[in-house]
Write a structure and sequence with these properties.
Layout (H helix, E strand, L loop, with lengths): L1 H17 L9 E2 L1 H7 L5 E5 L3 H6 L1 E2 L3 E2 L8 E3 L2 E4 L3 H10 L7 E5 L8 H13 L5 E4 L2 H7 L4 E2 L23 H9 L4 E4 L3 H4 L18 E2 L6 E3 L4 E3 L2 H9 L11 E4 L4 H12 L6 E3 L3 H5 L14
Parallel strand pairs: 1-8, 2-4, 2-7, 7-8, 10-11, 10-14, 14-15
Antiparallel strand pairs: 3-9, 5-6, 12-13
Helix pairs in contact: 5-10
Length: 307
């Protein structure tokens, strides 16, 4: 009898493991996956669109944490830095996230850059040890284009007691890391902005100086999506690797990479695709960005790259 009970218990345990909610290895889910698991007790969905858009309609159960809420940190007069651990912990508790949760983020999906809104949330969670996360490919635009369930009902959330106690410094670059990379040819730096910022031909007001960090390659984040006519979705892993490498003019996939933009938004998006579609192992975001770097006495370059 005891052996029978053990066998039944083992079958139940194995069955539970088989049907547990799992995150795909590339941390990207499609609309079919989300629709299938929408009622799973361990699923938490976060909508990163503006509050006005969320109120007009959102995916069932989604909690609204817009893009700006993932840039809550500030040092001196430098805003839009990563959220503090207490900020992220409060956000997760209020969203009902537990240690068993899978957190799926989605953006609008209407522009080639807005997937970075969702990636910003994911990067903030990874910074504090929460890796059970995924991004909805195509965002809300793809979900709605397929006429899947949309609601204006606000979800009823049971506040959790999750506590964050870790900090993953392997995904964030400091000014010292950038300085080292400038002088070490085996450590790469890439600029996630578009060409006019890279060349210093912009007129952005919050930059003390204009241009790029020396030795950085231009790798615009917007290259990693494609327009289907109804929504923007991420390109494939193969296309991502080819675009990153750019026939030898881009980044080498087997070397450490530091990514920057102006404030961290596009850098976080490029971090996501480099890590989860490009398969790069050592990728960091210099989240201070050019807003902070331009206020140092470090060298900046302008014009066309001489490399």
């Amino acid at each position: 009898m005891k052996n029978l009970i053990k066998k039944v218990s083992l079958v139940i345990a194995v069955s539970s493991m088989m049907f547990a909610l799992e995150v795909p290895s590339n941390h990207i889910v499609n609309t079919q996956w989300l629709e299938k698991n929408i009622n799973d007790k361990n699923l938490v969905v976060i909508d990163t669109r503006k509050a006005e858009a969320y109120k007009k309609g959102h995916i069932k159960g989604a909690v609204n944490y817009p893009k700006k809420t993932w840039f809550g940190g500030k040092i001196g007069n430098i805003p839009k830095l990563p959220n503090t651990i207490n900020q992220v912990q409060d956000m997760l508790q209020n969203a009902g996230v537990t240690e068993d949760s899978v957190v799926v983020f989605y953006s609008a999906g209407t522009k080639n850059k807005d997937f970075a809104d969702a990636a910003s949330g994911i990067w903030n969670l990874w910074l504090y040890g929460v890796q059970n996360t995924a991004l909805l490919n195509g965002g809300f635009a793809k979900w709605s284009s397929e006429q899947k369930l949309i609601t204006t009902k606000l979800p009823k959330i049971a506040k959790s007691d999750i506590e964050l106690e870790s900090y993953d410094k392997s995904i964030i670059a400091s000014l010292n890391d950038i300085t080292e990379a400038i002088y070490d040819e085996d450590i790469q730096i890439t600029d996630a902005r578009v060409n006019k910022f890279y060349k210093g031909e912009d007129d952005r007001k919050d930059l003390a100086r204009h241009g790029r960090i020396p030795t950085s390659k231009l790798t615009p984040m917007i290259r990693y999506t494609k327009d289907t006519g109804k929504y923007f979705e991420l390109i494939s892993a193969k296309e991502t690797k080819n675009t990153l490498y750019n026939n030898g003019y881009g980044v080498e996939l087997d070397k450490p990479l530091n990514i920057y933009c102006n404030t961290g938004h596009k850098a976080r998006g490029l971090w996501f695709v480099s890590k989860f579609l490009g398969g790069m192992k050592d990728v960091k975001v210099y989240d201070d960005g050019i807003v902070a770097y331009s206020r140092t006495n470090m060298t900046m370059e302008t014009g066309e790259s001489m490399d």
